[in-house]
Specification:
Low-confidence stretches: none
Domain DUF1731: 243-289
Helix content: 25-40%
CATH class: Alpha Beta
Organism: Marinomonas pontica
Order of helices and strands: EHEEHEHEEHEEHEHEHHHEHH
Number of helices: 11
Protein name: Epimerase
Number of domains: 1
Mean pLDDT: 92
Family: Belongs to the NAD(P)-dependent epimerase/dehydratase family. SDR39U1 subfamily.
Oligomer: single chain
Domain NAD-dependent epimerase/dehydratase: 3-215
Largest sheet: 7 strands, parallel
Radius of gyration: 19 Å
Number of strands: 11
Distance between the termini: 35 Å
Strand content: 15-25%
CATH superfamily: NAD(P)-binding Rossmann-like Domain
CATH architecture: 3-Layer(aba) Sandwich
CATH topology: Rossmann fold
């Protein structure tokens, strides 16, 4: 298959790219500028080059998007997050000479907004807020591909656990003994192992029954307090130092809700499609990540 991949140098993109190359697909990476650290088997295309590339892509996998949790949500930052997701997706659609047969685009469980008490499947009404608005607009941009009979799959991701990503940023504070419950730790922590993310994307590429929106989270829900304790244990540390809500609010403003709130999200549609999670236990998922990092 001819597969166009945005976000190929990101945390998920690098991992997925390795798996796709093993299956001998013809991969095209959408880049801002040609990079030296992408496998030579991959043809790199800028957006301008894509607009003059007169070949039909079988699949477009849309992974691009700036880190939503890296900076406070100022007006300027919100605009950048919107452009890196919604604007880029629209620009790619405009640049493609031929509509792809399949589009697989990421979203996030932030679609469901700020909530703790409800259980959210794909049809549960969301709560309002910036995270919801951003995800909704991103999903709408991806779904607009369907007007050309393209099969569109949108995955709402939880926190992806792997060698890199969110855990890489948490590792040092936890190693220093500074990891612990955030704002009491009773909020939910939707998570998924990166290998299950890869497997879900690969399955969606191959299986025509995959269509529409899917929650890509482990079926085993845990609270943030439970996650902190198990992650600390996986690196032989204790999770003793709590982080109060007021401190996060003062440091990050509106963005703090990503840390202090968390909905309980379930992968109802994936399970209905018979998808089997390789990692449905967070302890085994965290232990696997730590083994990969330490080389044990």
């Amino acid at each position: 298959m001819k597969i166009l991949l945005s976000g190929a140098t990101g945390f998920i993109g690098r991992s997925l790219l390795t798996s796709l190359l093993k299956q001998n697909h013809q991969i095209y990476a959408l880049v801002r500028a040609i990079k030296s650290d992408i496998d030579d088997q991959v043809q790199q295309l800028t957006l301008d080059q894509l607009a003059t590339f007169n070949e039909k892509m079988d699949v477009f996998v849309n992974l691009a998007g700036e880190n939503i949790a890296s900076q406070p949500w100022t007006a300027k930052r919100k605009a950048a997050l919107y452009e890196s997701r919604v604007g880029l997706t629209k620009n790619i659609q405009s640049a493609l000479t031929h509509p792809p047969s399949v589009v697989i685009s990421m979203s996030a469980v932030g679609f469901y907004g700020v909530a703790r008490d409800d259980i959210f499947d794909e049809n549960t009404p969301p709560k309002p807020g910036f995270a919801h608005d951003l995800c909704e607009a991103w999903e709408s941009a991806a779904n607009s591909f369907a007007i050309n009979d393209t099969r569109v799959v949108v995955f709402r991701l939880g926190v992806v656990l792997g060698k890199g990503g969110a855990l890489a940023k948490m590792r040092l504070p936890f190693k220093l003994g500074l990891g612990g419950p955030i704002a009491g730790g009773k909020q939910w922590f939707p998570w998924v192992h990166i290998r299950d993310v890869e497997r879900a994307i690969m399955t969606a590429i191959q299986e025509n029954s995959y269509n529409g929106t899917f929650n890509l989270v482990s079926p085993a829900s845990v609270t943030q307090k439970e996650f902190a304790s198990l992650y600390a244990s996986s690196i032989n540390r204790a999770a003793l130092v709590p982080t109060p809500r007021w401190l996060l609010n003062s440091l990050f403003g509106e963005m703090a809700s990503l840390l202090t709130e968390g909905a309980r999200v379930i992968p109802k549609r994936l399970e209905e499609h018979g998808f089997r999670f390789e990692f449905s236990n967070i302890k085994s998922a965290l232990d696997d990540v730590e083994q990969n990092i330490s080389g044990r």
